[in-house]
Design goal:
Elements: H1 6-10, E1 27-28, H2 39-52, H3 62-82, E2 89-92, H4 95-107, E3 121-125, H5 134-143, E4 146-150, H6 163-166, E5 171-177, H7 189-198, E6 202-206, H8 218-221, E7 225-229, E8 240-244, H9 246-251, E9 262-265, E10 270-272, H10 286-302, H11 304-322, E11 328-331, E12 342-347, H12 352-360, E13 364-365, E14 367-369, H13 374-380, E15 385-389, H14 396-412
Parallel strand pairs: 1-13, 3-4, 3-5, 5-6, 6-7
Antiparallel strand pairs: 2-8, 7-8, 9-10, 11-12, 12-15, 14-15
Length: 416
């Protein structure tokens, strides 16, 4: 197993100095919800506010020039990280907003490949986060299009056996998660995207659980749009990213209207600036973009291949440990074939929320509930699960603490 120097990494994260209930150390296993932030990211934001704070793309004074340079420099950093061009990177407030941007932009198109109507189809999967389900549900309602979906197998994989029946000339959009936020499953996106392209469908990829955890080159995936959030990859809250192919962004309608996204304006009409400005109305989240760039620099200094290897080692160890616990059922793949550092499980006789409260007494922070994936919970016949998710600041001792904590939970509830 290849592991990072976690002690050195943790020294960059002030929150790990905090003592939890009963004076326990923090065992943070909830990075799938949001990651912790290193000093370098907080320092980058503070430097912007202290030395460069001004509205970007407005004014010709020194602060405005420096703020604009910092903001556009962040865009270039994100583009290089993804193997993209900088004018293909749109900053939003979150991946959720990025997905809604696409859905609303498509519904604003009366004609062309973005326009949907009765008889058109949108293809999703049962493992989607609500953020990559509800916008498409609403788009279907607005346009009369039909939703279809890949089902999920009992072992947590996409059932692709019906792919040739689900994809057709009527399929206008395919929107899938890269890695499930519940199951940890990494989906065969390149294979599915190739088939989608044969039918002329647009492919939207929710990469919230992949971009922070392994190298992602958008030029090699075969997709048209990629969305993710900064706060899940050591960056600040309030900053998200939408990548789109330049020719598609040029043809799309705007999502929001206001300052900075226009080319010309009269009292009767307006024309739009080229992308990415066309999709960034108003004063953007400038300091947050700078913070995201600092987070990317931090991850690249470690190396995304090493980040992934570390999580594979942790998850392998966790799978081995959790499967020794009597009455524990893992929801999702039980091997490391195409899976990442997210583990969901259920304990016989113990509600996830109750189990979480016991784990919290030992300083162990996990996520419980439906994880914004109700259809998936219904698929597996559970009201919710307990989820542990790993990142660069976790080590084998954290996994040991989780296993010990679960055994203590069973003892507390007198469950054999």
């Amino acid at each position: 197993m290849t592991l990072l120097d976690v002690a050195t990494i943790k020294a960059d994260f002030p929150i790990f100095e905090k003592k939890m209930r009963n004076d326990a150390r923090l065992v943070y296993l909830d990075s799938g919800a949001t990651s912790q932030k290193p000093r370098q990211v907080m320092a980058a934001e503070q430097y912007f506010y202290t030395h460069q704070n001004a509205a970007v793309h407005r004014g010709s004074h020194l602060l405005a020039e420096e703020a604009s340079a910092a903001y556009e420099g962040a865009r270039e950093t994100v583009a290089a990280f993804l193997g993209a061009k900088s004018d293909e990177i749109i900053f939003t407030k979150s991946a959720t907003e990025s997905l809604n941007l696409l859905a609303y932009s498509f519904s604003n198109s009366a004609t062309g490949r973005f326009a949907l109507g009765v008889g058109d189809e949108i293809l999703l999967s049962e493992m989607e986060h609500h953020a990559n389900l509800i916008p498409w549900q609403q788009l279907a309602k607005r346009t009369g299009a039909t939703l279809k979906w890949f089902e999920v197998t009992p072992d947590g994989r996409l059932d692709l056996s019906q792919i040739d029946q689900l994809l057709s000339a009527r399929t206008k959009i395919v929107a899938l998660t890269h890695q499930s936020n519940v199951l940890g499953t990494i989906n065969p996106i390149t294979e599915i995207a190739k088939k989608a392209k044969e039918h002329g469908a647009l492919f939207v990829l929710d990469a919230c659980q992949s971009v922070p955890h392994f190298a992602t080159d958008v030029s090699k995936l075969g997709v048209d749009f990629v969305t993710f959030s900064g706060h899940k990859m050591l960056g600040p809250t309030g900053i998200g990213v939408l990548w789109g192919r330049s020719e598609l962004l040029a043809a799309m309608e705007p999502f929001l209207f206001g300052g900075s996204m226009i080319e010309t304006v009269t009292m009767e009409s307006a024309t739009w600036a080229p992308a990415p400005r066309k999709f960034e109305a108003g004063v953007p989240n400038m300091a947050q973009a700078v913070g995201l760039a600092a987070a990317i620099n931090y991850l690249e200094a470690i190396g995304m291949d090493k980040v992934h290897e570390h999580e594979v080692a942790l998850t392998t160890y966790a799978l081995e440990g959790l499967q020794t616990i009597k009455g524990l059922t893992i929801i999702g793949p039980t091997n490391m074939d195409s899976r990442g550092g997210v583990l969901s499980f259920a304990l016989d006789g113990i509600h996830p929320h109750d189990g979480c409260q016991v784990l919290d007494q030992y300083g162990i922070a996990v996520r419980t509930g439906h994880h914004c994936a109700w259809p998936l919970m219904r698929k597996y016949g559970v009201s919710g699960t307990t989820r542990a998710s790993f990142y660069i600041y976790n080590d084998l001792a954290d996994i040991d603490a989780l296993v010990t904590g679960i055994e203590a939970t069973k003892k507390y509830f007198k469950v054999s």
